[in-house]
Amino acid sequence: MKPRPPHSTGKCSAARSAKSSPLSQKTYACFVRRYDANHLAQHPKQKISAMKLLVTAEDAP
Question: What domain range includes position 13?
């Protein structure tokens, strides 16, 4: 099994968890990934060094 590249454990400012039932309110999830120089050297065609994805979900009216 190939080791996973290091990634950030930093929090996204908009991330929050819904403690009540799913989608009873607008819900957010944030994912952050950063690749170190060693990983990028092993994958020379990879141009992305970091990315952040914010996902929102809510019930339609």
Answer: 1-61
Tens of pLDDT, residues 10-41: 456 554 544 545 567 889 999 999 999 999 99
pTM equals: 0.53
Task: For residue 2, give the amino acid letter.
Answer: K
Per DSSP bridges, beta strands 50-57 and 27-34 are antiparallel
Spell out the alpha helix ranges (H) of 17-57: 37-42
Give me the phi and psi of 39, to 5 degrees please: -60, -45
Single out the residue of 35, 40, 34, 38 nearest to residue 53, CA to CA.
34
Number of domains within the chain: 1
